[in-house]
Amino acid sequence: MTKQQQGQLVIIGGAEDKKGECKILRRFFKLAGGRNAHIVVLSTASSDPHAGIQYQRIFNDFGAEQVQVFAIQNREEAASTQFCDSLKDSTGIFFTGGDQLRITGILGGSVLGGELLKSFERGAVIAGTSAGASVMSETMLVGGLDDATPSKEIIRMAPGLGLIKDVIVDQHFAQRGRIGRLLTVVAHNPYILGIGIDEDTAIVIDGTEEFEVIGSGTVTVLDGRQVTHSNVSESSPDQPLALINVKVHILPSEYRFNLYERFVTMPAK
To answer: So what's the architecture of 8-260 in CATH?
Structure first.
């Protein structure tokens, strides 16, 4: 796996706790600087311009120094330089849920999209939930059948933001029965690591070679590097896939996974 830039990522499977302990959101808040945090909430994934307001209230309640919502709704707004200065000063950027193609379609190649990547390179922590999680990878899942038998036509993929390399993230994973479509991703290219994140669960990549699991659910990791056989190239569109020797890890909170060497570290007793 190609080593990623040394940014910090919080990739959330969706439906994270917003009213109780808020463990995931509090971790992002802490990584972004706690009470010194300057947070930008990007609600581009949603067509509702008010989609980021709930997160603004939450981070304000935590005590962040500054929280702004960018409800960027089109490429004309993304091309404007008025948002860039605020993004330059941010310590944390949070993508809401919605449609991941709206994020790439509106921000991709724009002035604001370029500033987002620069913010990551200089050390800002970037978080995303649901669609905001899928968009983190170089190639992202943009659609597919839930509760489906793996077959090569059940998924749709597109270029993502590229903040994490050689990985594809799926969200709402256990709740929507998405293991079939993530296995199909691995069949398409066994070198790609498939990461399925349950609701109210996240992986935290803090600039090291590992991610840590936090939250109430689990993270499913599908490693296909040792696959010995697949029929993906010769199968018909509706024919079930054969995929032999896939390695599967199910990781609850506090477990860690090395993205480069691909091994699990269990919590200290």
So the answer is: 3-Layer(aba) Sandwich (3.40)
